[in-house]
C-alpha cells in the first residue's frame, strides 16, 4: 500500500526547494515572534513584509542596513543549518523523520534570554545553555545529516573566508558547517556584523525593545522546517514539529 503524504510533503514536492533548514522558532502568534519579525522587517511564517519599529537612536534606514542578512532567514535559531537535499532522499522522508524524531523527544527549557553581542553581531541568547539543549542539538545534527548533500567548493570557500579554527574546519568537512558540536552556540540572530559603536547601540536599543517579550523563561517546544525556494530567495517558515507532548 502506498504511504499517504502529508499536505506539507505534497506542497514541497510540487514546488522547487533549493535548501531546507531545521530551526528553533517561537509561536508565530507570540509577542516575541511579532516584535522580532517587525525588527527584521519580515514575517517568515506569514511570508509578508512588515513596517519596522522606531527604536531609540535607530532610524528605519539604519535598521534595514543592520538586518539585511538576518531578515532573509527570518527570526530563528539554527539547529541544522541550511542544506540541499541529498540525491537519494526526498522531502517526504525528511518530513517523516522530523515527525518521528520529535515525537520521541521532550521539550527543552532554554530559560531566560538576553540580548548580547556574539562574534560581531547582535543576538538573543540563553543566559545559560543546558546539557539537555546541547544533547538535543547534537542529535539533530547527526540524525539529519543523511539528508544533506555535501557542500560544493564554492560553499566551502565561503565558509572558510571568515577564518576557521582546526576544529571548525573538521566540523565543516564532517558536518558541512563549522559551528556545530562543541562550537555550537544557540542564538536568534538580530543583526549582521556591526562595528562599534553601532553594535553597542543595537544591543541597548534591542534589549529595551524586546524586554516585554523575554521577561519569562522560554521553552523549546518544537522544531521548525524552513525552506529557501531558490538560491538567494527569502526563507519561509513552513512546518512545526512538536517535541513529544508539547
UniProtKB/TrEMBL annotation:
Protein name as annotated: DUF1045 domain-containing protein
Domain of life assignment: Bacteria
Lineage: Bacteria, Pseudomonadati, Pseudomonadota, Alphaproteobacteria, Hyphomicrobiales
Biological source species: Vineibacter terrae
Pfam families recorded: DUF1045 (PF06299)
Amino acid at each position: 500500500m502506498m504511504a499517504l503524504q502529508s499536505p506539507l510533503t505534497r506542497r514541497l514536492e510540487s514546488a522547487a526547494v533549493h535548501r531546507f533548514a531545521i530551526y528553533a522558532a517561537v509561536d508565530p502568534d507570540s509577542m516575541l515572534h511579532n516584535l522580532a519579525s517587525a525588527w527584521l522587517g519580515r514575517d517568515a511564517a506569514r511570508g509578508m513584509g512588515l513596517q519596522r519599529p522606531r527604536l531609540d537612536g535607530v532610524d528605519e534606514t539604519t535598521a534595514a542596513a543592520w538586518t539585511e542578512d538576518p531578515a532573509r532567514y527570518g527570526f530563528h535559531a539554527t539547529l541544522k543549518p541550511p542544506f540541499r537535499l541529498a540525491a537519494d532522499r526526498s522531502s517526504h522522508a525528511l518530513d517523516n523523520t522530523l515527525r518521528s524524531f520529535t515525537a520521541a523527544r521532550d521539550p527543552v527549557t532554554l530559560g531566560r534570554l538576553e540580548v548580547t553581542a556574539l562574534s560581531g553581531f547582535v543576538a538573543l541568547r540563553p543566559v545559560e545553555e543546558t546539557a539537555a539543549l546541547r544533547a538535543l542539538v547534537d542529535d539533530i545534527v547527526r540524525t539529519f545529516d543523511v539528508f544533506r548533500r555535501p557542500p560544493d567548493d564554492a560553499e566551502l570557500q565561503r565558509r572558510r573566508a571568515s577564518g576557521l579554527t582546526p576544529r571548525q574546519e573538521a566540523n565543516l568537512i564532517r558536518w558541512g558547517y563549522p559551528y556545530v558540536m562543541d562550537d555550537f552556540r544557540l542564538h536568534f540572530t538580530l543583526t549582521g556584523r556591526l562595528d562599534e559603536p553601532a553594535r553597542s547601540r543595537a544591543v541597548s536599543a534591542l534589549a529595551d525593545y524586546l524586554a516585554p517579550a523575554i521577561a519569562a523563561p522560554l521553552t523549546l517546544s518544537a522544531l521548525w522546517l524552513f525552506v529557501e525556494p531558490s538560491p538567494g530567495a527569502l526563507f519561509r517558515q513552513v512546518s512545526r514539529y512538536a517535541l513529544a507532548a508539547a
